[in-house]
Specification:
Elements lengths: L1 H24 L22 H14 L7 H17 L2 E21 L2 E3 L2 E2 L6 E5 L1 E3 L5 H5 L3 H4 L3 E5 L5 H10 L4 E5 L24 E4 L1 H9 L4 E21 L3 E10 L7 H20 L4 E8 L7 H9 L1 H6 E7 L8 E5 L5 H5 L2 H10 L3 E3 L10 H5 L4 E7 L16 H20 L3
Parallel strand pairs: 5-6, 6-7, 7-8, 10-11, 10-12, 12-15, 13-14
Antiparallel strand pairs: 1-2, 1-9, 3-8, 4-9, 9-11, 13-15
Helix pairs in contact: 2-8, 3-8, 8-14, 12-14
Length: 432
C-alpha cells in the first residue's frame, strides 16, 4: 500500500506541475511565424560514414539500461563527444530512477515456454484459460463476449497498437493476465520476442513470447500458468547536456535517449547519431535561440530521465520554446512519420529538406494527427511546448535482439537527420 501511495503521490505531483507550467505558457501563442533570421545556406554537413560509425559504436556497447555498466559507458562516450564537438556547459545531471528487473516462467501441461515479463510487472503467480484477442484493439474485442474474456489470459499479437494500449484494453475487458505474442516468425530464433515497459502501475501480470509460442498457445486453449519474479529499486543515474549559445536565453531542446533494452541500433543508437550530427552542425553555425542538446537516461523506464529533467529544472522548462526529439530512425520497412502540432505542418512542408525527402529516399512523409506522445517528448507536449519527432514505424525488430545496425538504411537516416536539422533551424531562428 505504501508503494502504491508513493506512485500515486508522484503522479499527482507531476500532473500538478504540468498543469502549472501549461497555465504559465497559455498566452504565449507559440505559432512560430515567418522567419526573422534567415536560415544560412549550407554545404552538405552530414557524413554517412560518421553516422554509421556512431550507430555501430553505441550498438557495440550492448544493453544500456539505466544504472547498468553499458549505460555508464554510453554516457561517458556522449560526454566525450559533446566536449569534442565544442558544446558549452557540457555536464551530467543526476536524476533518481525507479529501476525494474524481472524473470518470467510460462507453462502449460508441464510444457515450459520462454517468456519475458513486461517491465513494471509485480511478482505474481496466476493460472487461467487463454483466449485469442487478435491485436488487442477495441475492434478486436468487439466480436468477443464478456463471458469469453472475463478472468481469462488474453493473447494479443504485436502490431497496430503499442503494448501499453493492449495492456489497457486487456484490463478494461476483465483479463487475468496478458500475453503479447510476436506477429512474425523468425526461423531458428527463439529469442525473437518484443520486450519493454508496461505501465507505471501493473495490476495484472503481462509477458511477451515469440510467434511460435503464441501459435502453440492459441491452438491449445488449455489452462496456463504464469509466474513472475520481479524487483523494483531506486538508483541514481544521469542525463548528459550541453548547449550552443544563441543571442537569447530562450532555448530549443534537441533530445535523444541513450538507454536500450538490447544493443538497440534502431532504438536508439540511430537517435544518438542524429543528436551528435545536429549538435556539430549548430556548433559551426549558432542560431538566434540557444540550442540545448540532451541525451536522456531511463526513457525505456517510462521516460523517467526526461520527466526529472523537467521537474528538477523548472526555470529551464519555462525558457524552452520548442523540442525536437530523435528516437527510432532509419528503417525502411516501416513508414516515415512526422509528429508536430497541426498548425506547423504547412511551414514544415515548405522546408527544402522536406521537399527533397521523397526524391532522395523513396519514402513519403506522413503527418500523424493526433501526434504520438510517447518517447521523451511527452512531458514537453503535455505542457504545451511545440514538439517535432520524425520516426519510422512499424519495425518488427523493435525491442528484440534483432535490432542491429544491419536493419538500418543510412541514406534514409541521413535524410531524416537533415530534415530534423532544418526543423530545429526553424524553431531556433523564426520569430513568434
Amino acid at each position: 500500500m505504501k508503494r502504491k501511495a508513493a506512485f500515486w503521490g508522484l503522479g499527482g505531483l507531476a500532473a500538478g506541475f504540468a498543469a502549472a507550467v501549461a497555465w504559465k505558457r497559455r498566452s504565449r501563442g507559440l505559432d512560430f511565424r515567418d522567419s526573422k533570421y534567415l536560415l544560412p545556406s549550407r554545404e552538405k554537413e552530414s557524413s554517412r560514414e560518421r553516422i554509421r560509425r556512431n550507430v555501430e559504436g553505441f550498438y557495440g556497447i550492448g544493453p544500456r539500461m539505466a544504472g547498468s555498466p553499458g549505460e555508464r559507458e554510453a554516457r561517458e562516450r556522449i560526454l566525450a563527444a559533446f566536449s569534442l564537438i565544442g558544446l558549452a556547459e557540457v555536464k551530467t545531471e543526476r536524476v533518481p530512477v525507479l529501476d525494474w528487473s524481472g524473470l518470467a516462467h510460462l507453462s502449460q501441461d508441464e510444457r515450459f515456454f520462454e517468456a519475458i515479463p513486461f517491465g513494471g510487472t509485480r511478482s505474481v503467480r496466476c493460472e487461467g484459460m487463454a483466449v485469442d484477442v487478435g491485436y488487442g484493439r477495441p475492434e478486436d474485442y468487439a466480436g468477443l463476449s464478456r463471458k469469453d474474456l472475463l478472468g481469462r489470459v488474453h493473447l494479443a499479437s504485436v502490431g497496430e497498437t503499442h503494448r501499453a494500449q493492449k495492456y489497457i484494453q486487456a484490463m478494461l475487458h476483465g483479463a487475468k493476465a496478458l500475453i503479447l505474442c510476436h506477429n512474425e516468425p523468425r526461423e531458428g530464433k527463439v529469442d525473437f520476442v518484443e520486450i519493454g515497459m508496461g505501465l507505471p502501475l501493473m495490476p495484472i501480470p503481462a509477458v511477451s513470447v515469440s510467434f511460435e509460442t503464441g501459435r502453440i498457445l492459441k491452438e491449445n486453449p488449455r489452462p496456463l500458468v504464469i509466474e513472475i519474479e520481479a524487483e523494483r529499486k531506486f538508483c541514481w543515474t544521469y542525463n548528459v547536456t550541453g548547449i550552443v549559445k544563441g543571442r537569447t536565453s530562450k532555448e530549443v531542446l534537441i533530445g535523444a535517449h541513450f538507454d536500450s533494452w538490447n544493443g538497440g541500433a534502431y532504438d536508439n543508437a540511430s537517435g544518438l547519431a542524429a543528436l551528435l550530427e545536429v549538435a556539430a552542425s549548430f556548433q559551426k553555425r549558432p542560431a538566434f535561440r540557444t540550442l540545448r542538446f540532451t541525451a536522456f537516461t531511463a526513457e525505456e523506464l517510462t521516460m523517467q530521465g526526461s520527466l526529472w529533467s523537467c521537474l528538477l529544472h523548472p526555470k529551464r522548462l519555462l525558457a524552452t520554446s520548442a523540442m525536437v526529439n530523435f528516437d527510432a530512425l532509419g528503417v525502411r520497412e516501416g513508414k516515415t512519420y512526422l509528429n508536430c502540432p497541426a498548425r506547423l505542418e504547412e511551414r514544415i512542408r515548405e522546408l527544402p529538406a522536406f521537399q527533397r525527402f521523397s526524391s532522395l529516399t523513396g519514402h513519403k512523409i506522413e503527418f500523424l494527427s493526433p501526434p504520438l506522445v510517447f518517447s521523451d517528448l511527452i512531458w514537453y507536449h503535455l505542457v504545451g511546448i511545440p514538439c517535432a519527432w520524425n520516426v519510422d514505424l512499424p519495425v518488427v525488430e523493435y525491442h528484440t535482439p534483432s535490432d542491429t545496425p544491419a536493419i538500418l538504411d543510412y541514406e534514409l537516416l541521413e535524410a531524416e537527420i537533415d530534415l530534423s536539422r532544418e526543423i530545429a533551424d526553424f524553431f531556433a531562428n523564426s520569430r513568434r
